[in-house]
Amino acid sequence: MSYDFRSLLPADFEDLARDLSGKVFRRRFEAFGPGPDGGVDGRHASAAGFFILQAKHMVDSPFATLKRVMKRERAAIDRLAPHRYCLVTSRSLTPANKAALAEAIGSALHDQADILGPGDLNQLLRKHPAVERSHLKLWLSSTTVLESVVGAIVHSAFYGFTATTRQEIGAKVRVYAQNPSLAEARKILDQRHVLIVAGPPGVGKTTLAEILAFAYLGEGWDLIPIRGLEDGFGRIDDAKRQIFFFDDFLGSIAFDRRALASTDSALAIFMNRIRNSPNARFVLTTRAYILNEAKSASERLSDRRVGVSTYVLDLSSYTRAIRARILYNHLLVRDVPRKHLLSLLNSGQLAKIVDHRNYNPRVIEWMTDSTHLEDVTPSTYPKAFISALDNPKALWDKAFRNHISPACRHLLFALFFTPTFGASISELQAAFVPLHDRLCREFGVARDPKDFEESLRRLESGFVEIRNGSVDFINPSVRDYLSDYLSDGGLLVDLAKAAGSGAAAKQIWNFTRSKLLSPIRQKEVAAGFTHLIERLQTAPQRQFRDKSSKSDIDNSDRIDALLEWWAASGDRLFYDSALAIARNPPQGFVGWRDAPKLLEIARQLDDEAYFETTSETIELKGVLEDAVITLLAHGMAIDDLERVSDLVTDRDANYSPEVTEAMQEAILGTIESTHEACSDLTSETELDDHARSLQKLAQRAPVLPPGLASALTALEDRRAQVAEEQADSKEPEALQAPSAAPQFDDNALRDLFDSLR
């Protein structure tokens, strides 16, 4: 493929020039920034003297401009007196152009072949494909690759991936400052197939994961963004090359440590499934403190045998040069007003910004967005930039308190307590209306029937974004700000009383507990949910991808929430409702979704650390166990049966003998039906996993050896049938960080930013 190099920023082009020139001349060039140092963008020292490299990224400039620039450079070149000189430019050249440049440069240029134009660069890239792939921004900008990435993302847009247009992807790639974290993350993903990108808010976790996913998409992999593990289980196909993307996968679990108990097993199973597949990759992001909390609360996640591959992306991985490049890229790409830019460049504050203890790419993004600079004069821009770093959360405070209406604030509250991945417009409206009505009555605020539509319109592009009918925060830092703002106990009581669904109530309750409010305040919040009792007993369960305002959370989640509110408030109505749902769940329980959760609730009812043992807890535990027994009798997938058996056979569990018997009967039935199940298994990995699960389950039931042997033989026969159909995995080539300067002092910093003048 051929490039015009427009996608590269000047500093990116210099990196490429050094790497390709190094291949041509078989020398390693030291890196130098642009600026008043004589234009030394690369240097190689030898006994013969200095070999100087200069790069001119002037793709859209007339040749006369390039020639004029090189005539001005002549004095600096003569002063340097290099042993050899090379010019690399993105401006297209004719033989006559090269001759004119050779005359302008002088005797330091040994041969016109040492002038490399875009044609020469493209020829070298074809000869050295590893250099092409290591410069990801260049490779992703090609029409063929970019169109394949756009197509894959548009195909996946329904599932909520963040970028959906060519312009948006191009802008994201253009502003990205490639650094060693990309190559290191890619190495872990290659070796383990599973990568968890963890770090503090705003450090660039999602950006790294997205760029990594773009690289795979460019190689023809299928993108599978998921919002839950059930989504992943339902879509994995070993016959295809798939990369699964789960952003903020522990976001909601962090609010509820107990919820982790019913999730970590599925996560471990899915990770194991991915690791054993030659054609699957799994990238997850989470905040470092949430991951550490989850690992401390989960034996499975902390167990080395699970093999959780963790790549912690923290600020220590950002060298001074990378921090400077991130700021440089944003100032160049994001159209900072010229007067603001010059004010910052002349302020002497660049080093203070780059070295600031709170340096964060999210703050850099905010402070280089022209829409956010309307209230900042050019003269105060440097001071405002430092102030934003001093207090990052204050970025949203002024706009939230002074620039939007109460209705807008109420809409943001409603969005905060919907799932992390956003809400449909109808779902958000259903959450907004009761919340807005209550808060307006509570604080004497006038309201209008058009408040929702008007508020959504005003918030779009400033606080929220709307994609494919889904509304989400425009930046995660908005959620961070609201997390602090909403910590007021009195406000949470009002929000509880206004919750329009079990899903919203569960989010509010988990948030309340995470803030460690007093037992009295928690009691008030829990009591505020009594108005939802009838809804939880009658509303249908929310199906996969269904965001109807009429449906609600899983039946097992309803029981769990009601019991927590009962424990916190002492109101027996919550217990009675939980018991009613356990006996008559709307639309019935579902094995894969409810059985593990029901067992966990039954276990907690028997644990005085959660509930005091009473006639009520004994009665409810029995009803829950009966429900699990019924689900086992109806049969379930082997992965789900394995999860249930893990809980039943746990040494700390105390379930009735009937539960154990039902589990054993289900295991025997699964082994006996292996011959029929084989036809649904279409990959060697699935068959291997199935065999391992059977061997594990057989130890927990009275399975006769011949029966197990027959089942394993059937799996092995099926494995031979699909072996030839197994697609080979073609790995994207290694993503290496471009060469960088060994040190980055204040002179290098000044030279980098001087090119913006």
Tell me briefly what this model is.
With 757 residues, the protein is α/β, with parallel strands linked by helices. The protein contains 38 helices and 13 strands. The mean pLDDT is 84.
Task: Find the structural class using helix and strand composition.
Answer: alpha/beta
Subunit arrangement of the protein: single chain
Principal-axes geometry comes out as globular
Q: How many angstroms separate the termini?
A: 33 Å
Tell me about the largest β-sheet: 5 strands, mixed
- What are the low-pLDDT stretches, counting only 5+ consecutive residues below 50? none
Lateral arrangement of strands in the main beta sheet: 1-2-3-4-5
**Number of alpha- plus pi-helical segments:** 38
Strand fraction: 5-15%
Query: Which bin fits the share of residues in helices?
Result: 55-70%
Number of strands: 13
- Averaging pLDDT over every residue, what do you get? 84
For the CA atoms, what is the radius of gyration? 30 Å
